[in-house]
């Protein structure tokens, strides 16, 4: 593994073990199939999300009481690094599920909502999504304008 910035050395022993475990899963289970999925244009989404859930890759920072692993954010980053090494779409599916779907429920949801949705999202039985839409822009963030009275910041 190339690690030009020696980021792995910053991980604790438990986080390195998590990273190695995910690496083994990716190399043994995902890498052999990803090319066929790409070539066929078909992805077994439901089965794959359940598989990612079984591996603890969906919402791993979510507390165990809600179906997550209660992992550190460093461990989460190492997990996503390994998924990304295989395919950006797989990493996106896992990180959207955990960060853009599960985190808001955990942070802002009622206790009832947490218990109703988080375990199923963590296991991959439920699949969440994130949508961004704006007037005059749809899902294209480019033409979106700031709210009246706000100033726009552009980066290049």
Uncertain segments are: 152-156
Biggest sheet details: none
Total count of strands: 0
Please give the alpha-carbon distance between the first and last residues: 31 Å
Q: Count of DSSP helices?
A: 5
Give the fraction of residues assigned to helices: 55-70%
Hey, roughly how much beta strand do the residues contain?
under 5%
One letter per element, helices H and strands E, the order comes to: HHHHH
Q: What would you report as the Rg, rounded to the nearest angstrom? A: 18 Å
Q: Structural class, judged by helices and strands?
A: mainly alpha
Integer average pLDDT:
90
Cα shape: globular
Structural summary, described in words:
It is a single chain. This protein is mostly helical. The protein has five helices and no strands. Mean pLDDT is 90; it is low at 152-156.
Write the layout of secondary structure elements.
Elements: H1 13-40, H2 45-54, H3 73-86, H4 88-108, H5 111-123
Helix pairs in contact: 1-3, 3-4, 4-5
